[in-house]
Amino acid sequence: MIRIRSLTKSFGALQVLKGVDLDVHRGEVVSLIGASGSGKSTLLRCINGLEDPETGLIEVDGALMGRELRGGRIHEVSPRRARAQRAEVGMVFQSFHLFGHRTVLENVMLAPRHVRRVSRDAARSAAMEQLERVGLADKAGNYPRQLSGGQQQRVAIARALCMRPTVMLFDEPTSALDPELVGEVLDVIKDIAADGATMIIVTHELAFARDVSDQVVFLHHGTILESGPPEQLFGAPRHERTRAFLQRFT
Ligand code: ADP
Ligand code: MG
């Protein structure tokens, strides 16, 4: 479903991604862990097209984007398909970014209405379906400020799901939440995973990552130092740096 090859990305003189290769199969849940500044968000932002790759290839569900070095020259790979790809990738951020002057239902309906151009009725029923899924159908008429942080993040998840993405990316979805609200959001993400969604989750909730992931990837200074099934990565990490990182959380 996702294939990344030799992905690099720099901001000015700072190379943030230094040649990342990653495969995510359909229905697979991948947790991306690593220290702050290691490039986790940049990697997600490249996958959903918020950042352009510097060099390398990213393929999502058959749509290819990126820049390839051929015959000593950089070739742009299909920018039109890259734009189409953006709508196929759902992303949930640390901060929820809901529109405060719109109801929960309106927030979830917006993107399908304006990006997919679906009818009001169809957008409404799709939105209600997703709100149901995250357990917030009864809050449809409320405004974001009337909801807890955990509920707002669940609305943000419903909003992303409403676009029927082929891939879901979560960037530290519980980092902004009070500890007692983390569980309800992780439960929703777990449900979505159980429904067979393909997803990449950046998280510091290592117990959750261990529980939900098929594959765990440890990013260190812009390279994937180690990856594998959770039992292996958490239980028998091969690299000293992976061990050092994991020890900070236990
Ligand atoms: P992580 O999510 O793992 O904490 P990021 O991908 O956010 O790491 O950032 C990796 C590095 O890239 C950091 O040093 C950060 O300051 C830098 N960086 C990220 N985005 C930008 C940007 N738009 N402009 C300049 N530097 C950036
Ligand atoms: Mg980040």
Automatic annotation (TrEMBL):
Membrane topology reported for the UniProt record: Peripheral membrane protein
Q: What Pfam families would the database entry show?
A: ABC_tran
What reaction does this enzyme carry out catalytically? a polar amino acid(out) + ATP + H2O = a polar amino acid(in) + ADP + phosphate + H(+)
The listed locations are: Cell membrane
Q: Which residues form the ABC transporter domain?
A: 2-246
UniProt-listed CDD domains:
ABC_HisP_GlnQ
Q: State the UniProt keywords alphabetically.
A: Amino-acid transport, ATP-binding, Cell membrane, Membrane, Nucleotide-binding, Transport
Broad class of where this protein is predominantly found = membrane
Q: Name one GO molecular function term.
A: ATPase-coupled polar amino acid-transporter activity
Keyword NAD present in the record's keywords: the answer is: no
One Gene Ontology cellular component annotation held by this UniProt entry: plasma membrane
- PANTHER family in the record, alphabetically? AMINO ACID IMPORT ATP-BINDING PROTEIN, GLUTAMATE_ASPARTATE IMPORT ATP-BINDING PROTEIN GLTL
**What name does the UniProt record give this protein?**
ABC-type polar-amino-acid transporter
Instruction: Record the organism.
Output: Nakamurella alba
